Amino acid sequence: MTEDAGEFAGDADGFGRLWTPHRMVYIKGEGKPDSDAAGHGCPFCTAPHRSDEDALIVARGEHVYAVLNLYPYNSGHLMTVPYRHVADYPELDEPETLELAQFTQRAMRVIRSAMSPHGFNLGINQGNVAGAGIAAHLHQHVVPRWGGDTNFMPIVGHTRVLPQLLADARAELAAGWLAVG
Length: 181
Hints:
Elements: H1 5-9, H2 24-28, H3 43-46, H4 52-55, E1 57-60, E2 64-68, E3 78-82, H5 94-115, E4 119-123, E5 140-145, H6 152-157, H7 166-179
Helix pairs in contact: 5-7
């Protein structure tokens, strides 16, 4: 073996590594749904037909539901999602628009009560070019933020460190949804 062979064989180079090969599925977009105009294959259309625990649904309304993000930026990162398969915000009717806003407000109150964040990022990514992971079905992100929650891991390691399992976060927020009005 030559001196240069070490860098190709995985020898230590002074950098620590945290291997997260399960993330490659997300990075490559493997299994990303190709939903049609009717929503067939759309995870936001199929989630309401599963149990709340299995689908990570926190709360259900008449037109909208709240669900945890499978690939969260932070613990408690949830989304408010209309049941109807629409891609563009202006496509929502008045009752859907109102309930989406009300669910977002309530989600913030619940997360504040349960997790005491210092702030929030709220957002709707419209279209693939805007960062929408599932552009065919509108969804609004509610991301709790804490001072110092951004560190070297996402920047250098392309890895997020989350202190709570999704199932535990769902249970905590679902209980909070009932307690906080």
